[in-house]
Amino acid sequence: DAASAVTAAKQATVDQASAAQQKAATQANQAKVAVASAQDAVNKNTQAINSAKTAIQNTTSQINANNQAVSTAQAKVTAAQAALAAAERPTTTTESQNKYDAAEFPQSQLTGAETVSVAYPSNGKYVPNADKINQYMFEYINQLRALNGQPALKQASTLQNNAIARAAAQVDGGLDHTGSSYAENLTQVYPQWFMSDQETAYNAVMGWYDESNNVESGSFGHRVNLIYSTGDAGVAINLAKHVAAFEVDNAGMTEAQQDKYVDLFDNAHTNAATGTKALPAVTFNYVQTTPADPKKIAAANATLIAATASLNGLQNTGKTLATTLANQNASLQALQNQTSGLQATVTTKQAQVQVAATSLKAANVALTQAQGQLATAQQQQLSPVRNLKTSIAKTAAAQVTATQAAKNLASTKT
Predict the structure, then answer these.
(1) I need a surface site. Which of 242, 276, 300, 375 has the fewest CB within 10 A?
(2) Nearest of 371, 332, 405, 347 to residue 60 by alpha carbon
(3) pTM (two decimals)
């Protein structure tokens, strides 16, 4: 009938609402599980991040300690290099010193001072070398001329041979200008008084320049000839005669130069200074060199090798630590990026939980409403039946009463 159809329809609605409520409940539970799972992943990543940060701190501490060790090792290498260099250097000691100043050359205006280091003679015995003495004398003469603004003289074989011949022509212990074809200086030189060819040459040239020991007292002709002569020249010592000779041809001298030369030469007795500068005051240091000790060199080299190996090892360790730190930082960055994504997932899942909860709430309301409507329909369907049963019961009761009344009537009639 109609009531049964209505009840069946309401029952179908209840069934649909119940299925929808169960589905919503399942989705809500799944959403909660997803949130928990995502949050668990975030928590694990957070722990991994903390572990990564701790590892980075430890590696950074190791790097700092290694850097300090590298600095210490570098200092040891530097010290070892210096020690090796010191071990390899020969030992130089000053065995003797000869010093020349204004006291030795009272008539000279010395141009500053300098120190010359010369090898100490073997066994302390100086053996003169005439060629080297000649070379040093010529160099000193041109140095003297340069100090006084004069051009250098040219050493020519003709003049050099003449100087050799003139020195050889002298008598040991005496000097004589007779027979010279050129402007000439002569001096007595005794190398045994000195300790090197250079010192011997310096004394010969400065002896000419200073004129203190000139046999012709008050003459400065030697000085004039050294500075104001021109042309080709030669200078030579004769060790056997103890004589040095300076020869210059004065060729190419201009008239003005000749006038000045003659004037200075003629007036040298009264014009002692001649407005010139002398060579510097020289201190000759005679040094002896002792070769380096091979054993000390070997020991210093071994120390350097060990220090270098230690430094290289520390530097390699530093490179490894730097690589480790870079990898750790990269891992940390990856974890942080991943955590950001996971946190976004948690937020999304939490939003889905809210949506599922809302859907479940609506499904619960719909189910309750459907169940209420079903109950009402069921009540409406049962009401006619109950009325019929009541009517039947009343009819039966009335029949019983009627029967009883009939019996009572019959009895009464009887």
Answers:
(1) 375
(2) 332
(3) 0.57
